[in-house]
Write a structure and sequence with these properties.
The chain has 20 helices and no strands. By secondary structure, it is mainly α. The chain has four domains: 91 residues; 125 residues, no CATH class; 84 residues, no CATH class; 94 residues, Tetratricopeptide repeat domain (Serine Threonine Protein Phosphatase 5, Tetratricopeptide repeat). Helix 1 crosses helix 3 and helix 9 runs parallel beside helix 11. This is Sigma factor-like helix-turn-helix DNA-binding protein. InterPro entries: DUF6596, RNA_pol_sigma70_r2, RNA_pol_sigma70_r4_t2, RNA_pol_sigma_r2, RNA_pol_sigma_r3/r4-like, TPR-like_helical_dom_sf, WH-like_DNA-bd_sf. Belongs to the sigma-70 factor family. ECF subfamily.
């Protein structure tokens, strides 16, 4: 087996097995740092041994077994007390606990990381690191904060878990509903990172992340079939994923929604997403954030051509979303729709009011650049595109923005 083949096997195992291994060791040893470090050591051992020994038939089992041994060795080295050694061995030999209401280890790990004792931001960041496999830099971009600040947030979350002795347990069926909100936020951010990957050197669209987010959300819907926001998030993911293959051009540029080949969209995913949206509307219950976002995407995917889009309905839905989530990013997205309804001048005024809070967000500058171009203010538009290209983390998006910037006129 070539070095390239082994590297690809290790990378694939990292995507598929990292979260499972961390979850298994966290449950067994009760310590997040021990689990993470042991699994990291197991992957380092795989990099050393697999080129000579070959990739094992079951990489996940090999990695988990190796990580268990690494964890026990670490505990033995760090403790001179026989009791600690016995504790480690007992932990290693302990049979797995009953799965309880959450049967998937990765999803169970999300719930345990989303313990109410942790701040919401810390829950999401920590879970993205452990289950989504995102780097600290990728998580920082998702939160629009500095990488150093995000690293500190994750470190503090781990310290809180240890000092407060927060248990890594399966939540009871009674606890599930109140823990769902943070879990949905995690799954949404994992999906977004896959749909528009920010990491340097990564594919512009990471299907492994979008597929995993959808898989876990389907599992969560099976656990909570009556939860409207779970259904809404699943619908939102499906309607977004349906456009994935049309999102990047053969040359590697991002393709904007209005320019996509709608014949390439996945009609099966669109049909399922529309069905979920209709089912939630039929209940008459007040929709939450994800349900409104799904409804916006349903409007877009219902139009056979961009000119057929019901922009008045899109703006109305964004107005509804702003009542639920009055964030500057939502206001920016509303302004994009407003430009189609009331013109670029009205939209630019709305965008400029967001400058104090979104100056470090590439989409803010990209939106301004497009609106300025449409208003004939070419010099200002080019400067805004320059800033957007500088801030964008996705290679396909940078290529798209650079192309838009260099268009004549």
């Amino acid at each position: 087996m070539s070095t390239t083949d082994v590297r690809e096997a290790v990378a694939r195992a990292h995507r598929e097995e990292w979260a499972r291994a961390v979850a298994a060791l966290t449950r067994r040893f009760g310590d997040l740092d021990t689990a993470e470090e042991a699994v990291a050591e197991a992957f380092a051992t795989a990099v050393e041994r697999w080129p000579a020994d070959g990739v094992p038939p079951n990489p996940g089992a090999w990695l988990t077994t190796t990580a268990n041994r690494k964890a026990i060795d670490r505990i033995r080295r760090e403790s001179k007390r026989d009791a600690k050694q016995r504790e480690a061995l007992m932990a290693y030999d302990e049979p797995p606990e009953p799965l309880g209401p959450v049967g998937d280890e990765r999803l169970r790990l999300i719930f345990t990381c989303c313990h109410p004792a942790l701040a919401t931001g810390a829950r999401v960041a920590l879970t993205l690191r452990l289950v989504g496999g995102l780097t600290v830099a990728e998580i920082a971009r998702a939160f629009l904060v500095q990488e150093s600040a995000m690293g500190q947030r994750i470190t503090r979350a781990k310290a809180k878990i240890k000092t407060a002795r927060i248990p890594y347990r399966v939540p009871s069926a009674e606890d599930l509903p109140e823990r769902v909100s943070a879990v949905l936020a995690v799954l949404y951010l994992v999906f977004n990172e896959g749909y528009l990957a920010t990491g340097p050197g990564t594919d512009p669209v990471r299907h492994d992340l979008t597929a995993e987010a959808i898989r876990l959300t389907r599992l969560l819907r099976g656990l909570l079939p009556e939860d409207g926001e779970v259904a809404g998030l699943l619908a939102l993911m499906l309607l977004t994923e349906a456009r994935r293959t049309a999102r990047v051009s053969p040359s590697g540029d991002l393709v904007a929604l209005g320019e996509q080949d709608r014949g390439a969209w996945d009609t099966v995913l669109i049909a399922e997403g529309h069905r979920l949206v209709r089912e939630r509307l039929a209940t008459g219950a007040a929709p939450g954030r994800y349900q409104v976002l799904a409804a916006i995407n349903a409007v877009h995917t219902s139009a056979r051509h961009v000119d057929d889009t019901d922009w008045s309905q899109v703006v109305a839905l964004y107005d509804q979303l702003l009542c639920l989530d009055p964030s500057p990013v939502v206001a920016l997205n509303r302004a994009v729709a407003l430009a189609e309804l009331d013109g670029p001048g009205v939209a630019l005024a709305a965008v400029d009011r967001l400058g104090d809070t979104l100056t470090g967000y590439h989409a803010y500058h990209a939106t301004r650049a497009d609106l300025l171009r449409r208003l004939g203010r070419s010099r200002e538009s080019r400067a805004a595109y320059d800033r957007a290209v500088e801030l964008a983390g996705n290679t396909a998006e940078r290529a798209y923005l650079a192309r838009r910037r260099d268009l004549p006129g």
